[in-house]
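A further point concerns the way the authors explain their paired sequence and structure data. The central task, working out the structure tokens from the amino acid sequence alone, is never made concrete. I therefore recommend that a typical entry be quoted early in the introduction. An entry of this sort, consisting of the sequence and the corresponding backbone structure tokens, reads as follows:
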Amino acid sequence: MLSIKPVVIMGATGTGKTKLSIDISKVIGGEVINADKMQIYAGLDITTNKIRPNDQGGIPHHLIGVISSIADDVSVPSFRSIATTTAESIARRGRVPVLVGGSNSLMHGFLADHLDPSLANPFSIAKYKPNLRFKSCLLWVHTHELVLNEYLCRRIDDMVASGLVEELKEYFDTTLAHKIGNHTGLAKAIGVRELSKYFGGGMSLSDSIDEMKANTKALAKSQTTKIRHIAGVWGWPVCVVDSTEAIRCHLSGGDHSTEDISWERDVSSPAIAIVDKFLHS
């Protein structure tokens, strides 16, 4: 039987998971498997914050933009199937699957030894404690909430400057209204519901963007709560690295070298050491 030993990078949106996945993959011969439930759909690249091909550092990335933008929700069992097939393909080529994303429901679906489709929310059941089906290296990229919230607001401003509003306008103009109104699939992406109020004339652009920021911060808090549940209640062996100082340096707008030093000291170097020990154990 093919042995899969995945490296799994968890964390709230904006904490640096994507950057770390590339850093680690370059060292260990890894390939990235996306576990973000919005980035799996084609379209809305700015809104869903997909990594651009020229930012991938030459690392193969899988399951990004592979589902039609008008498809309904991708089920957890479906993701488990396609992610497992992808991980097996990577391992068969002598590479290391590096699963990365903020969708903890997809992480659970891929990693749990037994998947019960009747569990609508596995994080809400106190007595539910799944085991891992693979020997896995679980990394949590954590950022202090106040610093992360400031960064998330800044990131959305940058996304707006990069064409988020125009991208969403085109999406609304070309997608069937009932697909958007049902809020399934890609229509669940933060930005769709909020900007629909602006395009419909019911809210100013400024207020729509503010609502998008508030919902993004709420998402980050929910993601963090679920990771604490994974580590504390389920008892999965989660190792923590902290990107707070690196993000704080980024927000200060100072010398990039200071940010790079903080990132390497607090995040990439300790994470790579953890992964190296895992792979050679």
